[in-house]
Amino acid sequence: MKYELSTPDSTMAFGRVLGRSLRPGDLVLLSGPLGAGKTTLTRGIADGLGVGGRVSSPTFVLARVHPAGATGVPLVHVDAYRLGGDLAELDDLDLDADLERSAVVVEWGEGSAERLSSDYLVVRLERREDDVRIVALEPHGTWSTRAADLRLAG
Q: The whole model's pTM is what?
């Protein structure tokens, strides 16, 4: 499934729809180069979940926990960029425990965070020269059927 998102607002809207579909135990891995829109997408996801707190890139703290809002699902936002594939440091974050009761979104997590669950959704973002984002969804496990049911629009 591929989607074309022409503006930051459409990236936020896409994230909102995705966020409204998340439930405790969901793992979403965001993949794409710097400036592709991973944090903007996460802001939309957080808005869709209705979580509290300002969403910004957690690059220097590695992870931020946003308390549950109306949906009752907290968001754990992780930025694995600085980990550089260091799985020990990822283990130190104890995401396994968070995953049971939260939706977990990991920027730069592909190649390391998949081992947290066999059920996860990879969201690949690509930024074209005209600033349009191309989003491709790669579902794994139960996401293979759930992703088909999503009504995502940019």
A: 0.85
Q: Which long-range contacts (CB under 8 A, 24 or more apart) does 59-63 make?
A: 62/89, 62/93, 63/93, 63/95
**C-alpha angle with apex 132: 130 to 137, nearest 5 degrees?**
145
Indicate the pLDDT class of residue 154, thresholds 50, 70 and 90: very low
Alpha carbon separation from 147 to 66, 94, 124, 143, 150 (Å, rounded):
24, 27, 14, 5, 5
What span, in angstroms and rounded, lies between the C-alpha atoms of 40 and 141?
A: 26
pLDDT of residue 52: 78
